[in-house]
Amino acid sequence: MSISKLDFGNGYNSENSVAIVWAIADVEYRLDEYYPKLKYTNENCMDILHNVVDDHDANYGVSWEDIDYAIENYFYDELEKVRKQND
């Protein structure tokens, strides 16, 4: 089975590098799992992923906790409203 060479940009490809991909679907999974009443768009999910890239610690990589933290920061106001309604 032959696998096509993947281009990661900036001269990196699947023949000289590896890439770990976090996708909108990963953010959606966490949102649906933990915040099912929260409304979001693909654009929101991409903003969250960009925040993860900007804020992650390269010594540890990216984890589900980083995704969760970025979601909570991004939707802070909306989540506070939900928390107050549940009190």
What can you see in these coordinates?
The chain has one domain (about 25-85). It is elongated. It contains 4 helices and 2 strands, in the order E-E-H-H-H-H. It has helices at about 25-35, 40-55, 65-75, 75-85; strands at about 5-10, 10-15. With about 90 residues, the chain is mainly alpha-helical. It has a two-stranded antiparallel ribbon with strand order 1-2. The protein is about 55% helix and about 5% strand.
Oligomer: single chain
Distance between the termini: 57 Å
Low-confidence parts? none
- The count of strands amounts to 2
Report the major sheet: 2 strands, antiparallel
The gyration radius over C-alpha positions equals: 16 Å
Fold topology:
Blueprint: E1 7-9, E2 12-13, H1 24-34, H2 42-55, H3 64-74, H4 76-86
Antiparallel strand pairs: 1-2
Helix pairs in contact: 1-2, 1-3, 2-3
What are the defining features of this structure?
elongated; single chain; 87 residues; mainly alpha; two-stranded antiparallel ribbon
Short description:
With 87 residues, this protein is mainly alpha-helical. It is 54% helix and 6% strand. The protein has helices spanning 24-34, 42-55, 64-74, 76-86, and strands at residues 7-9, 12-13.
